[in-house]
Write a structure and sequence with these properties.
It is found in: Cell membrane. This is ATP synthase subunit c. The protein is an all-alpha fold. About 90% of the residues lie in helices and about 0% in strands.
């Protein structure tokens, strides 16, 4: 039983790392993309409508990676397959 508690605690730490690093990466990606968009809009204002559409598409793709990581983390939080594998062998 002590081993199961250890697996649960390490899973909680892993969930925090997955969510934290995913959020950090998404924030940095959107910040860099936004700064490049503003820089390109200042250089060529006539291209802003085209660039704006592409910027929103990229923002969605960047956020999609974070949301997939969040879904995996929530899967491990709600139904941990590692615990099931351990209890089936005991």
């Amino acid at each position: 039983m002590e081993f199961i508690a250890q697996v649960q605690s390490l899973t909680a730490i892993a969930i925090g790392i997955i969510i934290g690093l995913g959020a950090l990466g998404a924030c940095l990606g959107i910040a860099i993309m936004g700064s490049k968009f503003l820089e390109s809009a200042a250089r060529q204002p006539e291209l802003v409508p085209m660039l704006q559409g592409r910027m929103f598409l990229l923002a969605g793709l960047i956020d999609a990676a974070f949301i997939i990581g969040l879904a995996v983390a929530l899967f491990f939080a709600v139904s941990n397959p590692l615990i099931g594998a351990i209890t089936s062998r005991l």
